[in-house]
Structures are given as C-alpha cells and as structure tokens.
From TrEMBL:
It comes from the Bacteria. Residues 29-39 have a biased composition (Low complexity). Residues 59-183 form the Orc1-like AAA ATPase domain. InterPro entries: AAA_16, NLR-like, P-loop_NTPase, TPR-like_helical_dom_sf. It comes from Streptomyces yaizuensis. This is Tetratricopeptide repeat protein. Residues 20-45 are annotated as: Disordered. The lineage of its organism: Bacteria, Bacillati, Actinomycetota, Actinomycetes, Kitasatosporales.
Length: 711
C-alpha cells in the first residue's frame, strides 16, 4: 500500500497486531520545543539574602574546612530549626572553598523531588555527561543517580556538593541520591535531626547565635540604629534567631521617612504582633519565598505533617504555642488531659515528629524537658485557626492544673515547679476568655503557694504578682481570684524581707476583700493571717496579736476547728504569746495543740510538725528548757529529713535550739549553732535580709562576733 500525508496528516501502515503510542506537543507559531526544566546554575548558590558577615559558626566552619583538607569522601549534615542559618553556613563554606581553595562548587536545591532531580542531572552535565546520557536519564532509560555519581567519581577536579533544604530525606533515599565519593565532600542542610536519616554522615547542629554575635548581626545591617547594648536587647526579644535578626536589620536599614531606633523596634516587638513586624523586613522587590519569612517558614513543615498523615504533630505544636518558649517538663505532656487536642497514645509519635523536624528540642533543666523557639511559637500561634484556640487554651490549663499539687505542702526545692511558672504566665498573656483566664489564674496562684512552701520566695512573688496583673485585663482588679493572687504576692514579699511593701499590699487587698466578701470570708482571713506576720516582725505586737486572734476565730467559724488552716493559725499563737498569756489561752488547752494536730491531721502532717516546733518555743518561754530541748531536736531531725538543713524553717528551728542552749548556759554550743545559721542565711537570703540580721543580732547577744571566715 502506498500512503501519503500532507500538513498535520498521518499515515499508518501495518501488518499483524501493532500498538502505536502517540505523544503530542503543541507550541505556538515560531516557538521551539522547550528544553527539560533545570536550574540556571549549579555553580552559584540559589539562596536569598546572605549575611553581611557570618557571625559565630567558627567551630562548625573549622570542621567543614577540615573535611576538605582531608581530601574527600565525607558527608556532613547541618541540621537545625528553620531560620537558624544552616544555608548561610553552607554558603560561607561554599564561597571559601570555591574561592581560596579553587575547588569546584556545586549547589543543588533538594526541597522537592523535581528540583533535586533537575539539579543533580545539571551536576552530571557540569561534570561532563553527554547529551545522550542525560536524555536517557531524563526519560528513565538509565538510572539518573548512577549517572550523576559516576560523573562525580570521575571528576578531574575535586568538588564540594551542597544539597540545600533537604527537609524530606526520603526524597534522597528513594533514588539513592545521597552518596559519598573520594573526589569530593557533600554538605546537606536540613531540619531533620534524627541520625537514622543520615547513616554514615557526621551531624552538626546549627542553633541560635550567642548574644554578642546576635547583636553584631543587627549592627552589621543597621549600624546607625542604636548601640551594641540596644541591639543585644532587640536580639534577645528575637530569640537570637538568624532569620529574624536578618529581617529586623533589613527593616531598620530601609526606613527612610521616619527611621526607627533599635529601642523603638524593641518596644514595637513587645506591643504589637511580633511575627508580622519581623516579616516587614523582607525585601518587597524580591520574589516571596516562605523560607525567608518567619511567619511562613515553619508552615512548610506543618503542611508536610498533614500530607504525611501526622495531624497530631500539628496539634501538639499548636498546644505548645499557647505556652512559653521555656523548658517544659515532658511529664506535663504525658497526661490524659491532653486527649482533648490529640490522643494521648499519639503524643509520643507527635513529639518525635517535632523533634525530628527541629521544631523543638530535648534539654535537661533539672528534669527532662522540651523547648521550642519563641519566634516559632509566635508564628504558629498567629496561624492557629481561631476556632481551635479555646480548646487549646482549656487543654493547656488542665495540663498545668494536673501538674501543680492540689494542696501544696512544705517540701524541698522541686525544679519542676519553677519550670511551670512561665507557661502559666504565657497562657494568661494569650487568654482573653474570662472562664479560662480564671482557671489559669487559680493554677498560677496555687503554683505560687507551692513555690513559697518550698522556700523559693522570689519565684513565688514573681509568679503571683505577674499572674494578677495579667488576669486583671480580663477579670478586673476586684475579682476574687485576682485579689487572692495579690495577697499571695504580699506573703512572698514578707518572706523576702520587704516588710513595708508586704504590709501595703496585704492591707490594701484585705480591705477590698472585707468590703466585697466580709471579714469572715476565707480569703479575707488568709490575707489577715499574712498581715499579722508582717506587723509582728515590724514590732507592732499588739496589732499583730489582735489580727491573729481574729484569724483564729474567723477560721474556726468558716472552716471548722479541725481544718489545717485553723490549726495553723492556732499554732502561730504558740509562737506569739508570752508566758502569762500561754497559761491563760484557751484555758491552757493551747499547749496541747501538737497532740490535737496529730489526732486530727496525723503525726506526719506539716501543720503537726509546725505545732511541735512552736510548742518547743512556748516551752522555752515558760522556762521548761529540758522539754523544749528534746522537742526541738526531734523537730530538727524531721526537718532535715524532709526538707534539708538549708530550708527556712529548719534554720528557724536551729536558731531556737541555739537560744535554748544559751539559756541553759551552753554558750559555746549556742554560738556554734548560730554561726552556722547565719552563714546559711547569708548564702540563701543575703546578708541584709531581716532574718539574717536578726541571726547576727542574736549571735552578738551570745557574746560572739559574726560567722568565722576561712583564712
């Protein structure tokens, strides 16, 4: 058969069974068929804005340089959270190697399969692959990765290959794209921190910058905007994250009509939406790249979680974003209360995913913790759908509530308690719903009580006063919970030796509570108990004793005779009364209080132990020194066992023992005891604290000087 076709016509001639595949490619008039897509260059890094000067990073650059000096064959992985400067480090190393050392530099973007494949085939072409080989590899007729590495192995010149933004290592694995070669060194930048993704490679973590170097980055970019110290303050607010520093410096350096100082920028960071302000430093003339914006760089990872069927990782990160960028005890996340946000059984998987993507890290802060960067958390919080915020806040509040002791007791220092404080305060800063705010404030106040009862008075004061101030915005200044938090702050001020400030706070709060709730309200009585401690230590004994009597009677009426708070106030009477008063108080029954406490609360209860302590003081006042001596020694033994010798009430017990020893004529023993007490108080409270000063005064009364110093 003869056939003829013209124009776009086709003629087929066949004998037997034939299978014909047609491929149609349509181009406009005068257009040539496009070449396969690929990068414009693999000899120049395809990155955005680079630092004016790379600050810090000297240690990792030295290690990278050593790998080149050794010849080749190594794979080095730079890992860290988005925005920490991994690409900047790789770029600085690339420039050094291709400049001074004359090595061939090859740069491939490995953020997705298409970019990686096109870039690596361009590397093969650069290293001498023929068009036919490249066409066969592109069409799947020969293994593309084998072609690339064959050409790299046969390279006449030594080389450096950078695989940038390799945040999905599976892409590298699928085609066996990541290999080593004696002719060169491979550097990978990635957010994936798990060693299992990088067998045989050496891993180097890239974190945030040291404070001084972070400040210098801002000064490099905006030298006219402020001093080094002002830059350091701004750097701290930015968490010393290189991407955030670069954007902030870009913003400051490009203001023309109304230039901002670093101080002004820092104030706006505190007052406004931090992420939006930072991202204003991006170059508006440049193509928008999510990796170059703090508000979007981590969204890439969250999208990947969703695509990989890990929505619980997104949920966990959103929950963390309601809290603080401070160490968070892992035990807080391993609770059933988390189930409202993600299944508790999936928390481990979610956390491992965040760790693997460098979105959080494990640290030891006295207990095992996770910690995430503040700018990251701000970015995630800003992008959290509004309809999810309520359940996230409620869940965070319930987790904190479950972690803080329901009835805080005296005890040794617990590092976890202080770690919870910034998270409760961060949740209060974000919460605007009255119910949730009230719940979190109640937890924060209870946490302050727990801190107080472990002797951590500075943290107790800071937690309670800050929580009250934050909650006032939503609840108002006369809300019961706000007043209770202020009252707790006053109690902490007393323990810090700031008596006048403590009296002012407690007197003001008690007056409002009395007006709103009545004098017999438990909260009013609690403030009254604190106020009597202050006035007593200020030397106003009669006022203090009157307040204490009112508190005892009020608590007996409101809470009952057997309530621990009622018994605690009665125990304070044992420490406040003179000899004649002790005999008359409650018909002499007050001296039987330790037995009553043991019967009602148990012999191990802290209130029972405190009653025994104050009972020994009462026996001393009554001149019954042998009984007082035996009683206080047994109390000291128990204090040391439960709290340690530096605990405040343990030192108070030793001071009482020293007084007893002195009254019994054992001056040397009394002096030795008091010297130890004063030395420990100076170390724990400072030399000017009233308790320390009182100890030195008692030591002087014993006829001795201050603590002996080594020499």
């Amino acid at each position: 058969m003869d056939g003829r076709a013209e124009g776009d016509g086709r003629v087929y001639q066949a004998q037997g069974d034939q299978h014909i595949s047609e491929h149609h490619h349509h181009y406009g008039a005068g257009e040539a068929a496009p070449a396969p897509a690929g990068p414009d260059s693999v000899r120049r890094p395809a990155i955005g804005r680079t630092p004016v000067v790379l600050r810090d990073r000297s240690e990792v650059l030295e290690r990278l340089t050593a790998s080149v000096t050794a010849g080749g064959g190594e794979v080095l992985v730079l890992h860290g959270m988005g925005g920490c400067g991994k690409t900047a480090v790789a770029h600085a190393f690339f420039q050094s190697v291709t400049g001074a050392q004359g090595r061939i530099g090859l740069w491939v973007t490995a953020s997705d399969r298409a970019s990686l494949r096109a870039g690596m085939l361009a590397v093969a072409a650069d290293r001498g692959a023929h068009d036919a080989e490249l066409l066969a590899a592109r069409n799947g007729l020969r293994p593309a990765a084998d072609l690339v590495w064959e050409r790299l192995d046969r390279s006449a010149e030594p080389w450096l290959l950078v695989l940038d933004n390799a945040d999905d290592p599976q892409i590298l694995r699928d085609g066996s794209w990541l290999r080593s070669s004696p002719r060169g060194v491979v550097v990978v930048t990635t957010r994936r921190a798990a060693a299992r993704w990088w067998p045989g490679a050496e891993l180097a973590h890239i974190g945030v910058l040291p404070r001084e170097d972070a400040a210098q980055v801002l000064c490099d970019l905006a030298p006219e905007s402020g001093t080094r110290e002002q830059a350091a303050e701004v750097a701290d607010r930015l968490g010393r994250l290189p991407l955030a520093l670069t954007l902030a410096g870009g913003f400051l350096s490009h203001q023309v009509l109304d230039p901002w100082t670093m101080d002004a920028y820092g104030r706006h960071l505190e007052e406004g939406e931090r992420v939006r302000l930072i991202d204003q430093g991006a170059d508006v003339l440049s193509e928008e790249n999510p990796r170059h914006l703090v508000g979007r760089t981590w969204q890439l990872t969250l999208d990947a979680f969703e695509a990989r069927g890990l929505p619980e990782a997104v949920a966990l990160l959103r929950l963390l974003a309601r809290l603080a960028p401070e160490p968070l005890p892992l035990s807080l996340l391993n609770r059933p209360e988390i189930s409202a946000v993600l299944p508790q059984t999936r928390t481990e998987t979610a956390l491992r995913a965040l760790l693997d993507q460098s979105l959080t890290e494990l640290i030891d802060a006295g207990t095992r913790c996770v910690q995430s960067h503040g700018v990251l958390l701000d970015s995630v919080a800003a992008a959290t759908p509004p309809e999810k915020v309520a359940v996230l806040d409620t869940t965070a509040a319930r987790l904190l509530d479950a972690a803080v002791p329901a009835v805080p007791d005296a005890g040794p220092y617990d590092p976890r308690l202080r770690l919870y404080a910034p998270h409760a305060l961060a949740l209060l800063r974000q919460s605007r719903e009255p119910g949730t705010t009230g719940d979190v404030l109640a937890v924060a106040t209870r946490l302050a009580v727990a801190l107080h009862r472990t002797g951590d008075y500075p943290a107790a004061w800071e937690t309670s006063r800050t929580a009250a101030a934050l909650a006032e915005r939503t609840l108002g200044s006369e809300h019961r919970l706000v007043l209770a938090a202020h009252s707790r702050a006053g109690r902490a001020l007393f323990r810090l030796g700031r008596y006048e400030e403590a009296e002012a706070v407690l007197r003001r709060v008690r007056a409002v509570q009395e007006r709103l709730f009545g004098g017999g309200d438990p909260d009013t009585l609690d403030s009254g108990h604190g106020l009597q401690l202050v006035t007593g230590n200020l030397g106003r004994r009669e006022e203090s004793l009157a307040l204490l009597r009112d508190t005892v009677e009020g608590r007996r009426a409101a809470l009952g005779a057997g309530h621990p708070l009622t018994l605690r106030s009665r125990s304070s009477m044992l420490a406040a009364l003179g000899a004649d008063e002790l005999a008359d108080e409650e018909g002499g029954a007050l001296l039987d209080l330790p037995s009553e406490c043991a019967r009602r609360l148990g012999p191990e209860h802290t209130v029972t132990l405190g009653a025994r302590h104050n009972h020994a003081r009462a026996l001393t006042v009554l001149g019954r020194h042998d009984e007082a001596d035996a009683g206080i020694r047994s109390v000291i033994t128990e204090y040391d066992r439960r709290f340690g010798p530096d605990y405040p009430i343990a030192l108070a017990a030793r001071q009482l023992l020293a007084r007893i020893e002195h009254q019994r004529g054992r001056t040397d023993a009394a002096v030795e005891l008091m010297r130890d007490v004063v030395a420990r108080r100076e170390a724990g409270l400072g030399p000017d604290h009233p308790f320390t000063v009182a100890g030195r005064r008692q030591l002087a009364e014993f006829g001795a000087g201050g603590p002996r110093t080594a020499g």
